[in-house]
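anyone seen this seq b4? input:
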Amino acid sequence: MTELVATAESNGLVRYRMILFIAGQAANSRAARLNLANLCRCELGGRCEVEIIDVLEDFDAAIRHNILVTPTLLVREPGPPVTIVGDLGDRAKLRRALHLGDA
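predicted toks r here
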């Protein structure tokens, strides 16, 4: 299953493109989805496009992106790609990875 959960508005501000790899409804996968949704809403003002790939349904996508564990977030834009593994509960780590500075 691939799901697009948020679309960035093209208003000249920095746009974030991410892929979140999850494993079904596992607790860490559910937490990662919730934490990422909160980050997109609260920190990025909806300026993000998130594709969610369930590796239980699309294992080939995990192989293509070299994903070995879930949940894993791939930040594709802006800047060089960044990979974050885990439930995305560490807001400070996410902010640093997205070059948002410290909260």
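The helical segments are 27-42, 59-64, 91-97. The beta strands are 2-6, 16-22, 48-54, 72-77, 82-85. kinda curious what u guys think
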